[in-house]
Design the sequence.
């Protein structure tokens, strides 16, 4: 069943998500400095930058819930995770239920799948359960699909990104999040492969502004609905300026007139044990 509630995390059919799950995925020493280590810094960028969603794991959603709610930015909770410390075939297990996410005010949920991993089957099973729960509670599902593991040679090749996109469609994701290898034609093919599942793209490691914005243009030209970006924004010297540039490309204008129309979930803290 396709989620009817995608409008909660999209504006005029476009998406601009600020991703901040890297503290768990990569560790603070790899990605953070004195500014962006603070979740409040991110909430402020998400609000002032006009993002259509901000992505956190449940711990941040719990501890900074008041500020997130006040910001009015739609909350997307990442339901699985892993640290970057573990070696071996990649797997990311659930760390939060859909029910918990909803009680924390999430209006959509995120989930990572590593296709090609020897542990892919286990992740598919977990995902199936999450997806059914999300459907019951009316939360759209955004699926990060990254080809990874010993079987994968080049995770951003045409073959791999289109496979990831198609997996999103076949498994029923509302939005699939891909990595971009820099070839617009390949990304266009991936978007076609995703059919009616919408595609957003990750930002990747921090690049110069010019190069990054060129990439955003290519992503939109290829037919994606937007971006789920982290490091290229909150590691930027001027996160609000780069956000404005991204906004202009995605929405074709930089004013935030229509951003307040997005419906935000209410927290129901008492239900969380
Ligand atoms: P960036 O824009 O910073 O690349 O974030 C996108 C993202 O998908 C994050 O949500 C996630 O934490 C990270 O990339 C995972 O990257 P990887 O698994 O390649 O280390």
Sequence:
């Amino acid at each position: 069943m396709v989620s009817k509630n995608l409008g909660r995390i999209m504006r005029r059919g476009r998406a601009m998500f600020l991703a901040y799950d890297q503290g768990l995925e990569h560790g603070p020493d790899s990605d953070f400095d004195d500014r962006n280590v603070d979740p409040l810094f991110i909430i402020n960028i998400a609000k002032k930058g006009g993002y259509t969603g901000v992505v956190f794991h449940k711990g941040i959603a719990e501890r900074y819930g008041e500020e997130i709610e006040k910001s009015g930015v739609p909350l997307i909770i990442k339901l699985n995770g892993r640290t970057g410390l573990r070696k071996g075939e990649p797997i990311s297990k659930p760390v939060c239920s859909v029910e918990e996410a909803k009680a924390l005010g999430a209006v959509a949920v995120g989930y990572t799948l590593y296709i090609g991993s020897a542990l892919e089957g286990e992740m598919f099973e977990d995902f199936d359960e999450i997806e059914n729960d999300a459907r019951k509670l009316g939360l759209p599902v955004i699926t990060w699909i990254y080809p990874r593991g010993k079987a994968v040679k080049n995770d951003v090749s045409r073959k791999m990104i289109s496979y990831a996109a198609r997996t999103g469609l076949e498994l029923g994701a509302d939005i699939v999040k891909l990595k971009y290898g820099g070839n617009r034609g390949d990304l266009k093919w991936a978007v076609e492969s995703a059919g009616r599942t919408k595609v957003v793209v990750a930002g990747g490691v921090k690049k110069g502004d010019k190069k990054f914005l060129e990439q955003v243009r290519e992503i939109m030209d290829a037919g994606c609905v937007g971006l789920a970006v982290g490091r290229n924004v909150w590691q930027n010297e001027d996160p609000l300026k780069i956000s404005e540039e991204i906004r202009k490309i995605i929405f074709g204008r930089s004013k935030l007139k229509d951003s307040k129309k997005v419906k935000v979930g209410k927290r129901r803290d008492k239900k969380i044990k």
Observations:
- Confidence is low (pLDDT under 50) at residues 258-264, 269-273.
- DSSP finds twelve helices and ten strands in the chain.
- Residues 19, 21-22, 25-26, 144, 146, 202-204, 229-232 surround 1,6-di-O-phosphono-beta-D-fructofuranose (CB under 6 Å).
- Residues 103 and 160 are 36 Å apart (CA to CA).
